[in-house]
Amino acid sequence: MLDVEDECARLEARLADPAVLRDFLLARCLRRSLRALEPLRETAARLRALREDLAAAREFAAGDSAWTAEADRLAAECRALEGGLAAELAGRDRYDPYDAVLSIEGEERGRRAVAAFYLALAGRHGRRMRPLDGAAGALGRDTYAVAGGGDGDPGVWADLKADNGVHLVRAQGERGEPGGHGEQGAEDLAVRVTVLPDAGTGASLPGRPEDWRIDTVCTRDPDQPPSFFITHVPTGTSCFGTGADQREARGNALRQIAARALAAAVPEGEPAHRFLNPGADPVRIHVAEARPSGGT
Asked: pTM for the complete prediction?
């Protein structure tokens, strides 16, 4: 079982690190994580005090049987508190306070509809959603960072994790009704949405350096922002990062890789694992405007 007090102490130590404080997104995530643990820390502190009282009562009971009833009462209270704390910890998703990296894969029109949905959702919650890859569909997917609106935000991952999986984009009928097969009998567009806890902006490449190939994407267009194409050689997994300058472009690519590495390391026993490994059934249906006649 997680030692809540030790975990809180670890988070507080990280928040005192100047390097962490310079990364405001990471610092904000750590503050949210610490705040989410506060009720559990209070319970853990109460349990620690009860255990100390129980140890003292048992010591007294060894020499005076009048203390036996008090020792039994404290033991029962400890067991109840231990059971409640264990249940809370078992259901706790430690990534709930995290921001998220959101990837949308599928046909371009479907990706646009789904991205528009999440952009509007972010706006309603006072969150910021910005592209990490910059080039629409560079790898058949569009990837975004979705950052919470402030320290009071409960966490983007907590809100979006259930959206992992297949989404259907349904064309709106000519009369405005969302028909079962959309416009002129067209099939619904299947789009895969992947939501990952955001590991932060200060990421580095995991594993061996020789496992990675980094390519700078060159273009003849002087207005085209710099881009990095990073490939994990053993698996062929690639991430495309674009930014205002080379540092930001590389950071955006690394951010995607770090999020994927974090997600891959989540063990089956953790609540987040179920959301990171969704089933085949669609989890959400979007309605898109009908395509104009002769349009694309």
From this structure: 0.80
